[in-house]
Amino acid sequence: MAIEVYRIDDRLVHGQVVVGWGQPLALGFLVLVDDQVAASDWERDLYRMGVPPEMAVYFESVESALSHLAEYRQLPDPGLLLTGGTATMRSLVERDPAITRVNVGGLHHRAGRSPRLRYVFLDAGEESDLRAIGARGVDVTAQDVPGADPVPLDELLARSGG
Amino acid sequence: MSEGPRAIVAAHGDLAEGLVSAVARVAGAAAAARLLPFSNANLGGVELVDALRCELVASGAIVVFTDLPAGSCTIAARRIARESPGLAVVCGANLPMLLAFVMASSIAPDTWRQAVAKGQAAMCVAEEGAGGD
């Protein structure tokens, strides 16, 4: 199997990931790529607690993820990789050409961000990151849950409201 | 407002509002006033923690009832509980649990423990006629 979804989501592990994507895709594992979470026992326990026992969770920094992604792609079950922001995903994409699709799953309202969809708000840096990811030929779409229609990057960036 | 400890019901979408509304229908508005509904809608991880913390400070609630163990409300509540000794986080809230909480005669800080037991005990499968003759 493979890593089926490369997802940007500022909530990291939460209901949409574990249930919304996890059940229909029969996910066997999550890879959470976040330097701060990877460095903290407490943060790792926090996110591990919410995941059902049949789903493994692996915690990686950007650097360690890049050295382990090939191994994750060899696991027998499908998996989902998570980053909390666009910059981390951009770092992965720029150094791992095997990432061909990126899902923008949730970047919520905060100061400096502009609304694009109900669940996607972007600042200038995030927009630049997504453009850079797309410019590498990666298929970037916004989609919060599997049952929603994916919104292509060009359409996402052209939108000005939720 | 009725006597006793207060709680926040934190959940996805409009679930918290609905649960508190149901409590008010069953137990009365005064009892339901001990529960504050909180939705995670449109909030990112950091913003969710900030908003929930503000609600806790403003309300004096000592319990956060959440809907889903893996949910963002639970993650946020656990983050706050780490810095707030005495704050209880209860996952998987249901109506019997919330009713037990607001109807408890005790005003002890751990009233929520009895409510959890009630909520767990209330779960059942009604199979009348399932055998089908």
Our count of domains of chain A comes out at 1
CATH topology of chain B: Rossmann fold
Average residue pLDDT of chain A:
95
CATH class of chain A: Alpha Beta
| Name given to the CATH homologous superfamily of chain B | Phosphotransferase system, mannose-type IIA component
DSSP helical segment count of chain B: 6
Task: Determine the fraction of residues in helical runs of chain A and give it as a percent range.
Answer: 25-40%
Largest sheet of chain B: 4 strands, parallel
Summed up, the domain count of chain B is 1
Instruction: Compute the average pLDDT of chain B.
Output: 91
Kindly summarize this structure in a few lines:
Chain A has helices spanning about 15-20, 35-40, 40-50, 60-70, 85-95, 125-135, 155-160, and strands at about 5-10, 30-35, 55-60, 80-85, 100-105, 115, 120, 140, 150. Chain A is α/β, with parallel strands linked by helices.
Characteristics:
heterodimer; A: 162 residues; alpha/beta; Fructose Permease; seven-stranded mixed sheet; two-stranded antiparallel ribbon; globular; B: 133 residues; Rossmann fold; four-stranded parallel sheet; 48% helix
Describe the structure.
- The complex is a heterodimer of chains A (162) and B (133).
- Helix content of chain A is 36%, strand content 25%.
- Chain A has 162 residues and is an alpha/beta fold.
- In chain A, strands 3-2-4-1-5-8-9 form a 7-stranded mixed sheet, with helices on both faces.
- In chain A, a hairpin with an 8-residue loop joins strand 8 (139-142) and strand 9.
- Chain B has 133 residues and is of the alpha/beta class.
- Helix content of chain B is 48%, strand content 13%.
- Chain B has helices at residues 15-27, 29-32, 45-59, 72-83, 95-103, 111-121; strands spanning 7-11, 35-39, 63-66, 88-90.
- In chain B, helix 3 packs across helix 4 (72-83).
- The longest helix of chain B has 15 residues, at 45-59.
- The model of chain B has no long low-confidence stretch (mean pLDDT 91).
